[in-house]
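Quick one - inputs below.
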Amino acid sequence: MSTDRSARLVRAVEARRTRESWSAYPEAPSRHPGGEAAREAGLKAHESRLGGRFDLPEHPGSPAVARGEVSPYTGEPLGVAYPVASADEVYRTALAAWPAWRDATPETRTELCLAACDRIYERSFEFVPATMHTAGQSAAMSFTGSGTNALDRGIEAIAAAWSAMERVTPHATWTRGFGTAELSLDKRYRIVPRGVAVVVTCASFPAWNAYPAIFANLATGNPVIVKPHPTAVLPMALAVAACREVLAGAGFDPGLVTLAVDTAEAPVAKELIGHPACRIVDFTGSAAFGAWVEANAFPAISYTETSGLNAVVLDSADDLAPVLRAVAGSLCLFSAQMCTSPQNIFVPRAGVRTSSGTVSFEEVGEALAEAVRQISTVPRRAASVLAAIQSPATLALVDGLRDRGTVLLDAAPYEHPEFPAARTSGPLLLATEDPAVYGEERFGPVAFLVPAEDREAALRTASADARDKGAITAFCYSVDEDFVGRAEDAFALAGAALTSNLTGPMPLNFSAAYSDYHVSGLNPAGNASLTDDAFVSGRFRVTQSRRPAVSHRR
Amino acid sequence: MSTDRSARLVRAVEARRTRESWSAYPEAPSRHPGGEAAREAGLKAHESRLGGRFDLPEHPGSPAVARGEVSPYTGEPLGVAYPVASADEVYRTALAAWPAWRDATPETRTELCLAACDRIYERSFEFVPATMHTAGQSAAMSFTGSGTNALDRGIEAIAAAWSAMERVTPHATWTRGFGTAELSLDKRYRIVPRGVAVVVTCASFPAWNAYPAIFANLATGNPVIVKPHPTAVLPMALAVAACREVLAGAGFDPGLVTLAVDTAEAPVAKELIGHPACRIVDFTGSAAFGAWVEANAFPAISYTETSGLNAVVLDSADDLAPVLRAVAGSLCLFSAQMCTSPQNIFVPRAGVRTSSGTVSFEEVGEALAEAVRQISTVPRRAASVLAAIQSPATLALVDGLRDRGTVLLDAAPYEHPEFPAARTSGPLLLATEDPAVYGEERFGPVAFLVPAEDREAALRTASADARDKGAITAFCYSVDEDFVGRAEDAFALAGAALTSNLTGPMPLNFSAAYSDYHVSGLNPAGNASLTDDAFVSGRFRVTQSRRPAVSHRR
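Output:
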């Protein structure tokens, strides 16, 4: 392995162990080695792809335009044609490419996975417009959340896979007595990859889960078929292209990473997952399809991340203003189109205690609405924080909820300073105590202020919902250490990652690679976790051979 | 942790890493600290249990005799009554016992698991007659294979669980900049056990898979419901009793380990596995039910070990006699009622090359039959090697195969020197080239000599059968290094552990804890492996909490 990549691997393994802050790449676009020229070149490359054929040399299939790809910023179809092959064809390609990769050493595979991450990073400015005009993210989030941060989650998975493979001793001499005789056996242990992996990615944040899945599979020796959401193919096609180039450049068959493009009308995921050669499924998307995958992937194993009812429990604070600014920020961030965005804000009916007295439920609602407005009604700020709405269905969903509670703040579009046709929406903030309204996930810019009998009831409902209906994150504000402790216990058992008393510049739902476990596997929000050992340990198996040591040592 | 147990844990972790030979307990009954007195006391304790109520203080349920328990040695029913409770009752018991155990430290749980192993070892001489008179094993195998060796597999699983939990950093301080501000978070990571585990054990070798499953579950914080095969309850009841005593002695609720006894007529496994509170299933038994478990355990996760078509590929040898003695020994060992016993012996049609010329297919058959006879027709030797036939169904199965090929050696009972009523049978050895005969698992004392076009065809068929129909072990004899290498490649991909050119005192299918991986998870013989990281890493999850470090550090 090159000295650079070897050092990076060591550093990633170490960061995963200490769980301290580290990143493989600078988060600031200004520190990208390509500079301003790279940004311009990236935009140019993106524009040259629109309405054309996406170049994937040697990829099976015939070109067909992905009609689902329509920019949330311009309303224009991207018109990119990708090679579309049958499920059988991509499997044939993957299986044909497999043997040399399966037989390559973990070192080789790991290095090439790290090289693919580098290639993706080098092309960050091509990924930025691709992510913006499919997922609807802002340019900044496209560069970091879907770029450097997502690559870090990928490298974290590579490090986890490396560590898991390194723990498998390759050779042993085993000696013991049988009766009066002594026997020595040479034993060899071999890492055998499981087989073809299908990686199903989502619409609004594809890269963040795709990279861990793709690289955990590749590092452990499995070919990967990427099945992108039909509305967000381009960023995945770019990632697939980068992987294929790196693999081919090292003499491997690029068929190790293929693209399976489908349409909403003729989805191909079930066929891919049900294929007899399918051995691993990584899925990010709706809870309903995630549950289907978990129940039906067998004999393949599955790793899922879906969504949930993330909650805020608001008990008390010295100063409520920064708390509400923090909560408002997380309701606005990418218009809450993230699986970590909070949805339900539980407030004791008697109000929130602060050092300057109790703030009533109504006052909390008004102040939170105002804090949101400070972001959502200032176009330049809104553009960088809320960005665009990925799917028209999200706006319809928000519309349909307006009369289901007391409107504290109505959803309203803002005028994007750069893209006048952008599909935008500030959050809808409703007060409701109806579990039929707040008790299921409503994906997008909508949040509920829910009155609870008291803080214990708030905690009870929020943690029970997390456990029973799924949640990835939870948030608690309290000046009472005992209550925070109880919240930690309750959400730990419910399987939601709890953030307590956080205010300030970090988005509440920021999840850091190497440090934050993402999804616990303890509730319906998913069965896998980025990145615990279980995320990688099942992707390969160990087989062994043994023979007498004396006469046949070789 | 006590110094002794801590040292033992360190040693087990080390042995699992180096994969060198080590055992926690001496394998020789003569070295048991209780001496001859313990042997007599054990037998007495066993006899006092027959026809009585099995003592499991505080266990839910009403006593009912397990009518399936009939000694293969005496033909007499054991008549032991165990507490029988409904599935709901045992789950209630397990769930009520869980919280304190879930909250206990990994250190505490690990130490108590090791203490339970010690308790079982202390009582070895009670387990010996219990194993003999249910599973039909010899006294020697009951002491080692089902005793010290099985406990070692249990300790191996404890060590694996310990290592997996130790890799989870409990606490970190995470610091990074956001814009011009710097933020520090205190992060805590918590191991959360998955929930109630059901351990389904088999008839002929229950302890060997039960201990790894029970202790992997307990060490990672999960309550365990043991569902023994209705014909082999007693050894599992003894193990459950030992665990309960150790747990209760340390102040934990003994309901953490319960027994779910059923009958062949009213089996309870599906109800236990389908229970809404079931989170983990460990299964050892038939391939058919194992496949059902794998497909239907969801939302529980499953770890299965079933059975397969273990093969011998006989290409060449300097001296064929010791090879055939070794193969004959493994056909005879416990009358091939082991999931590792070979069944199909592939021999090139042209014969086997040796340093003194080629031995024809027919001659190989004759010599192998004679080598078996040297064991199976000498009562004292047969008693210690073949032991008894666990189930009458096995004899019927062997009977039904007699006319499916050319009989090289007929199955014949031997007269057990100590138990005249013992159900015994030497192996049936048939020559056949009909895949309908040798192409499925025939559990018990039957083996097929299969002519192959040449050694490559032999290897091709044997490894394809392993991959497609399941196999745990494989055996190859060849003086040609290249051929052995090809066999290693073929069986590695097929997921069978290959032993090459082994002759001498070690039984071919001996599998050593800490050193030999048992089952690969790559073929239908099971999805789990003793003991890779995947065997333990999914039994717990990690949840986290985080908060600003400065103002709220505690």
